[in-house]
């Protein structure tokens, strides 16, 4: 993490009650599909879990907590690794679980042709929309512990501003009684994208489902060959990403929102900051988050400050 700068003190965060009880799914939900980087078919089943267990992946009977303690830097996605077992591209799924309040769950993941010790969450249509759809169809229930008791849901509240940055990119947070998000991106060399800013109303699961979840991942057409040569986006297509050319603009319109790229960055941010959660708590801080040109690595650095 030497490439990042951060401002931190032990007084910045207070973990306090949200006034709500921890939740889990009312039953199992399942989705399968092609993965973005490996191009293989993967199946995910999300099972209800006891209060206090939090969210974790079950891969080949090895448990990998959805915690920033196990996040490792990887190109173009967020990867969790424990004891040599890796789960890649977790950010969209975790974003939906965090935003929709699924505090505790076991995420069983498998691939018929995966390499030993390595698996990837399906990319689906490049957004979190399908995850939100199956979560809403199944519904939630109050999670109880193994003694049958419900548990209070905690969240990190900011007492002072905090931030991390690298060059001209940053993630900052300011004390606020509600969750607010402001996010900016800048692609001056790509006229169809340019500089965009998105700001949320007071953030909740309903706002996320309507305004964020369906925003798809995006890439530049001129970078596709380089990414292929690096062994990435083997499963990428116009069906699971929006692709923009510097000279020709969007190759697979229409966009779902005029600022869809910026909204997708908000989606990623929520998924990455969910990794601050432990024991069924809320990972995303109750604060006004302001981010600019932040990627997965910078998001993870900020999540470590919260944790």
UniProtKB/TrEMBL annotation:
Keywords: Hydrolase, Lipid A biosynthesis, Lipid biosynthesis, Lipid metabolism, Metal-binding, Zinc. Pathway: Glycolipid biosynthesis; lipid IV(A) biosynthesis; lipid IV(A) from (3R)-3-hydroxytetradecanoyl-[acyl-carrier-protein] and UDP-N-acetyl-alpha-D-glucosamine: step 2/6. GO terms for biological process: lipid A biosynthetic process; lipid X metabolic process. GO terms for cellular component: membrane; mitochondrion. InterPro entries: Ribosomal_Su5_D2-typ_SF (IPR020568), UDP-acyl_GlcNac_deAcase (IPR004463), UDP-acyl_GlcNac_deAcase_C (IPR011334), UDP-acyl_N-AcGlcN_deAcase_N (IPR015870). Its EC number is 3.5.1.108. Its cofactor is Zn(2+). It is an enzyme of class 3 (hydrolase). It catalyses: a UDP-3-O-[(3R)-3-hydroxyacyl]-N-acetyl-alpha-D-glucosamine + H2O = a UDP-3-O-[(3R)-3-hydroxyacyl]-alpha-D-glucosamine + acetate. The keyword Lipid metabolism applies. GO terms for molecular function: metal ion binding; UDP-3-O-acyl-N-acetylglucosamine deacetylase activity. Involved in the biosynthesis of lipid A, a phosphorylated glycolipid that in bacteria anchors the lipopolysaccharide to the outer membrane of the cell. Lipid A-like molecules in plants may serve as structural components of the outer membranes of mitochondria and/or chloroplasts, or may be involved in signal transduction or plant defense responses. PANTHER family: UDP-3-O-ACYL-N-ACETYLGLUCOSAMINE DEACETYLASE 1, MITOCHONDRIAL-RELATED. Belongs to the LpxC family. This is UDP-3-O-acyl-N-acetylglucosamine deacetylase. It comes from Tripterygium wilfordii (Thunder God vine). The lineage of its organism: Eukaryota, Viridiplantae, Streptophyta, Embryophyta, Tracheophyta.
């Amino acid at each position: 993490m030497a490439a990042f700068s951060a401002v931190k003190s032990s007084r910045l965060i207070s973990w306090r009650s949200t006034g709500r009880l921890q939740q889990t799914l009312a039953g199992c939900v399942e989705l399968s599909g092609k993965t973005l980087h490996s191009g293989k078919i993967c199946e995910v089943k999300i099972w209800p879990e006891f209060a206090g267990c939090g969210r974790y992946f079950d891969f080949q009977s090895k448990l990998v907590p959805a915690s920033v303690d196990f996040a490792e830097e990887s190109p173009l996605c967020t990867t969790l690794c424990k004891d040599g077992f890796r789960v890649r591209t977790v950010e969209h799924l975790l974003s939906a679980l965090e935003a929709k309040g699924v505090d505790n769950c076991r995420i069983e993941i498998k691939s018929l042709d995966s390499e030993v010790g390595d698996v990837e969450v399906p990319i689906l249509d490049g957004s979190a929309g399908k995850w939100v759809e199956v979560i809403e169809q199944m519904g939630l229930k109050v999670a109880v512990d193994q003694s049958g008791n419900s548990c209070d849901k905690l969240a990190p509240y900011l007492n002072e501003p905090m931030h991390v940055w690298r060059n001209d990119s940053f993630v900052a947070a300011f004390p606020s009684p509600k969750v607010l998000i402001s996010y900016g991106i800048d692609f001056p060399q790509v006229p169809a994208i340019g500089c965009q800013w998105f700001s949320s109303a007071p953030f909740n699961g309903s706002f996320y489902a309507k305004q964020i979840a369906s925003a798809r991942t995006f890439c530049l057409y001129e970078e596709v060959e380089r990414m292929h040569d690096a062994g990435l986006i083997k499963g990428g297509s116009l069906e699971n990403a929006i692709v923009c050319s510097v000279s020709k603009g969007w190759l697979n319109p229409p966009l779902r929102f005029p600022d869809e790229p910026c909204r997708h960055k908000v989606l990623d941010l929520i998924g990455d900051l969910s990794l601050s959660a432990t024991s069924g708590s809320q990972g995303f801080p109750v604060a006004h988050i302001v981010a600019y040109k932040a990627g997965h690595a910078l998001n993870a650095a900020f999540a470590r400050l919260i944790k």
